[in-house]
From TrEMBL:
Pfam families tied to this protein: AP_endonuc_2
Gene3D superfamilies for the chain: Divalent-metal-dependent TIM barrel enzymes
Organism this protein belongs to: Zobellella aerophila
Descriptive protein name: Myo-inosose-2 dehydratase
Domain (Xylose isomerase-like TIM barrel) ranges: 31-270
Superkingdom per UniProt: Bacteria
Amino acid sequence: MSVKLGINPLTWANDDLPSLGGDTPLATCLDEGRQAGFAGFELGHKFPRAPELLKPILHRHELELVSGWYSGQLLERSVEEEIAAVQPHLQLLKAMGCKVMVFCEVTGCIHGRQDKPVSERPRFPAERWEEYGARLTEFARYTQSQGVQVAYHHHMGTVIETEAEVDALMEHTGPEVGLLLDTGHITFAGGNPIDLASRWSKRINHVHCKDIRADILREARNRNASFLNAVLDGTFTVPGDGCVDYPGLFRVLKEAEYEGWLVVEAEQDPSVAHPLTYATLGHNHLHAFAKDAGLL
């Protein structure tokens, strides 16, 4: 089995800043994503959340549902409370045939606040790693019993952002917890996606492929910008249009026999970065990198 190439609707409409692409119909996102060459989409806020509604829409566009973001709060909730809270999302993913759930701990997060510099994000309470790891593992064991594995998404503006924090999470959780490697977020956080992938390649079960414009990232850091303002300034772009070493990363994934989705997820302002143009560019680069690495 080879990898599949998917895309997140953030290219057309932003979930954290709905004014970006707010008037773009879902049909346009799906039409253009398919035209660009992608086989599947992740969920976005324009998608219906009932499988009987979503299945025929995706079928008409010859697309699969890849996965979808879930906002976890296991630092505040019990495992039982989280399991109860996740049911609508989990049942949708199951019904749509998804194999992974994008899970991010959002307790205290600031990535959706345009007025908050990303430097003011919450820090993970060091004394709670063992407890949190046990909770997340138990939660992931439950979702896995339902046929869907947790793919933990390290994310700017949250308690788990840096390489060291991802290492700690992996060290304190069991194999039930997979790792979503996001090339752009780990680079933004000062890390190296190849180093992270090399350490945890056997745990990686989902990959978000975004690139970084290094000069704009430097400016964002110098100005102590918020995550959303960094997005608006153009920090992120599609694979092959920035500084991330995708050929090197994909060699690591090939050696680890990775067989999941490679998802273009590049938050940009669609009024500046024409969605179909960038979706096509991202697909073509991603396909070439994956083929050269033997992943396709």
